[in-house]
Amino acid sequence: MTLARAIRIVRRTVLAGAGVFALAAALLVASGMRDDDHPADVAVVLGNTVNRDGTPHPRLAARLDAAAGLYRRGLVRHVIVSGGVGREGFDEAAVMRAYLARRGIPTGRIVADSLGVNTAATARNAAAIMRRNHWSSATVVSQAFHVPRCRLALRRAGIAPVYSAHARYAEWRDGYSTAREVIGYAAYLAGARR
């Protein structure tokens, strides 16, 4: 085999791999953008960045607004907000709970999980909270690219059915985050937990 032929083969392989990766990313986002408008016992909102002033970053606020919309429309009766303490030093779940309370959701309907440090932890904790409260169905709320992995994690934690709603917020870093989700989703399918 000549060097030129070997380079062509490598180039085609790389291009084919990039095409498969791009297709997987598009499928993840398309799947995450299809909201399931079904009644569920609870919405599970995954945490994200809290601003240095203690307010939710617009990405997180969009998740919370989506959950509040589900509650107001009567599609969920309770909301689990899940997150850890971020670099900014705030308990994401406490900030999320306060945000929803300011938007009229009764605090008795909001359960804060301050140990939801990643998607798998949120799924495990949500499943335990749901079992304690005799709730069986959930609607997961996150960015569209993150929704498929969240659904998979909740199902693996024993929650069924799992519906979804995505946050109406996009930013430049979503490209990087979507690429990361392709790898994360593949790892979840392979059995990794994070």
Provide structural commentary.
There is one protein chain. A 5-stranded parallel beta sheet has the order 3-2-1-4-5, with helices on both faces. It has one domain (3-189): Rossmann fold. The protein contains 6 helices and 5 strands, in the order αβαβαβαβαβα. With 194 residues, it is α/β, with parallel strands linked by helices. The model has no long low-confidence stretch (mean pLDDT 90). The longest helix is centred in the first third of the chain and has 31 residues, at 3-33. Helix content is 50%, strand content 14%. It has helices at 3-33, 58-72, 92-102, 119-132, 147-156, 174-189, and strands at 40-46, 76-82, 110-113, 138-142, 162-166.
CATH architecture assignment = 3-Layer(aba) Sandwich
Any idea of the CATH class? Alpha Beta
Number of helices: 6
Beta-strand percentage range: 5-15%
Helix content: 40-55%
Total E-strand runs: 5
What's the helix-strand series?
A: HEHEHEHEHEH
Poorly predicted runs: none
Give the CA-CA distance, first to last residue. 43 Å
Main structural class = alpha/beta
How many separate structural domains?
Answer: 1
Computed CA radius of gyration, to the nearest angstrom: 19 Å
Morphology: elongated
Name the strands of the widest sheet in spatial order.
3-2-1-4-5
Q: Largest sheet, described in full?
A: 5 strands, parallel
CATH fourth-tier homologous superfamily? HUPs
Mean pLDDT: 90
What is the CATH topology classification name?
Rossmann fold
